């Protein structure tokens, strides 16, 4: 991997912080598991550093995963559906979009939306006799498990339904217990010292990769090489530690107000930004601080970007799709970091690089990258609301401020049309704010396109950074940042009445 940095007037800040990090032995301290890199107490730090050695730990387990893939193929399985939510399911999704599924392996899809249309789409298209299913332990994924176990049991003899399920979970979890109770085909117990957003190079990322025919060995080899480079204690830009250098760039730019980290990637690896988004947002967004990743945003003219932007250009060998746009952005004075990938399997190294960089950036921001305090507080409020629903049978009902045709608008706005309401809402923004579109809709290509068009128009008219996420997925990826940063977000939620419903089991 080639790393190039052009951050203009911020270069002297980077040089100074690298000297400080080297003086403070930051590399040795991270690799030795020194929790004081991020906090004064070991809780939620010392037991979250398993990702540092996960590539080495997993290398001895790849052959067992390959045997599982062979056995499933021999038994005529053709499809796999991963039931997940948040960080642990994003790496498989990225690998599926990047590599596809090879002939002779399972055609893997990821279900990480509780929208009824998304659930029913997979239930309608899959043949239970040829489908293997994997699951995690959040409320959403346990609901998926119950739904598809019932779905499987309705179509196959009850005694063989469990044979179509594989658990990937932590030791001692409810899912591990259920896997034994219902005779799952297999259970893979992940290192409990690895959090979901740092789990790409563990069972959570590599088991789905093997099942769809991705060469997990090559991914791990590239992650080994990156891990070696990220052990370098010398921190010169020319021959230093790429993880620490990238993390230092992210940290000093965020502290200087360039906290909208915009990822531009070659088309083949465009989905990698979604994995980076959840890693950076959930790790950094707390204590009134945060780095907002902006991903899958179409590049625009330099004038479309404010002085709160920083750019990372991920480019695969031979691709020049975004070269012209990025050269213009660079000439306009925006900070740009370029990462060149020689091969798609360099993605294994990228997973490790960004994990290390994010950990270093959090050190500079003085936040713990491994906890999610605001997500937990939101879960408490959610459980309270669910208890009220169980008691009273209804949820609190909001009254729309405007109804126009088939559109109802809710919020603290006064307007005569949906367009006016949107404009009034956006006009309250201040410099440095961002707009987040949160779509509680069935994920489809048509909706992806519509959200992209709306994002582009908002950016070009107002100059704001924009993001888009499907609910409830975004709660597990960017939700911590939305709740825990400096309160710079303007949130637009889009909902719809579903044409078909699916009961929650």
Structure, briefly:
It is built from 19 helices and 15 strands. With 505 residues, the protein is of the alpha/beta class. Strands 1-10-9-7-8 form a five-stranded mixed sheet, with helices on both faces. Strands 3-2-4-5-6 form a five-stranded parallel sheet, with helices on both faces. Strands 14-13-15 form a three-stranded parallel sheet, with helices on one face.
Structure description:
With 505 residues, the chain is of the alpha/beta class. The protein contains 19 helices and 15 strands. It has a 5-stranded mixed β-sheet, with helices on both faces. The chain is globular and about 70 Å long.
First-last Cα distance: 47 Å
Helix percentage? 40-55%
Strand content: 15-25%
The assembly state of the depicted protein chains is single chain
Largest sheet: 5 strands, mixed
| Number of DSSP strand runs | 15
Molecular shape? globular
Widest sheet: strand ordering: 1-10-9-7-8
């Amino acid at each position: 991997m080639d790393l190039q940095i052009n951050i203009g007037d911020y270069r002297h800040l980077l040089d100074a912080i690298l000297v400080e990090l080297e003086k403070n032995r930051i590399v040795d301290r991270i690799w030795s598991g020194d929790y004081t890199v991020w906090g004064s107490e070991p809780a939620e730090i010392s037991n979250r550093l398993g990702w540092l050695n996960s590539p080495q730990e997993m290398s001895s387990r790849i052959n067992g995963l390959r045997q599982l893939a062979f056995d499933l193929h021999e038994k005529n399985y053709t499809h796999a559906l991963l039931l997940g939510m948040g960080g642990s399911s994003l790496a498989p999704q990225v690998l599926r979009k990047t590599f596809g599924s090879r002939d002779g392996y399972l055609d893997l899809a990821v279900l990480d939306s509780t929208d009824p249309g998304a659930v029913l789409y997979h239930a309608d298209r899959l043949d239970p006799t040829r489908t293997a299913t994997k699951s995690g332990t959040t409320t959403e994924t346990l609901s998926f498990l119950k739904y598809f176990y019932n779905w499987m049991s309705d179509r196959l003899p009850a005694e063989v339904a469990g044979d179509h399920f594989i658990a990937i979970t932590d030791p001692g979890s409810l899912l591990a217990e259920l896997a034994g109770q219902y005779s799952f085909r297999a259970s893979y117990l992940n290192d409990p010292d690895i959090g979901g957003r740092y789990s790409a190079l563990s069972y959570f990322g590599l088991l789905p990769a093997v099942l769809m025919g991705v060469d997990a060995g090559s991914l791990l080899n590239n992650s080994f090489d990156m891990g070696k480079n990220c052990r370098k204690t010398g921190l010169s830009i020319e021959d230093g530690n790429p993880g620490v250098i990238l993390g230092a760039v992210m940290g000093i730019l965020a502290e200087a107000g360039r906290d909208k980290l915009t990822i531009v990637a070659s088309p083949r690896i465009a989905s990698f930004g979604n994995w980076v988004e959840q890693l950076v947002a959930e790790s950094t967004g707390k204590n009134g601080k945060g780095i907002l990743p902006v991903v899958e945003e179409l590049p625009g003219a330099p004038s479309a970007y404010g002085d709160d932007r920083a750019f990372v250009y991920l480019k695969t060998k031979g691709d020049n799709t975004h070269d012209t746009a990025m050269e213009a952005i660079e000439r306009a004075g925006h900070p740009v970091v370029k990462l060149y990938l020689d091969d798609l399997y360099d993605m294994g190294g990228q997973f490790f690089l960004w994990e290390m960089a994010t950990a270093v950036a959090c050190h500079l921001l003085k936040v713990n990258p491994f906890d999610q305090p605001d997500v937990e507080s939101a879960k408490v409020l959610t459980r309270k609301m669910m208890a009220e629903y169980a008691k009273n049978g209804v949820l609190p009902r909001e009254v729309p401020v405007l109804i126009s045709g088939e559109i109802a608008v809710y919020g603290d706005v006064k307007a005569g049309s949906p367009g006016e309401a949107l404009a009034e809402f956006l006009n309250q923004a201040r410099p440095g704010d961002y707009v987040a579109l949160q779509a509680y809709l069935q994920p489809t290509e048509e909706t992806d396109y519509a959200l992209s068009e709306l994002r582009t128009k908002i950016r070009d008219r107002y100059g704001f950074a924009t993001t888009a996420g499907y609910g409830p997925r975004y709660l597990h990826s960017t939700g911590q940042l939305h709740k825990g940063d400096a309160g710079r977000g303007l949130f637009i939620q889009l909902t719809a009445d579903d044409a078909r419903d699916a009961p929650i089991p």
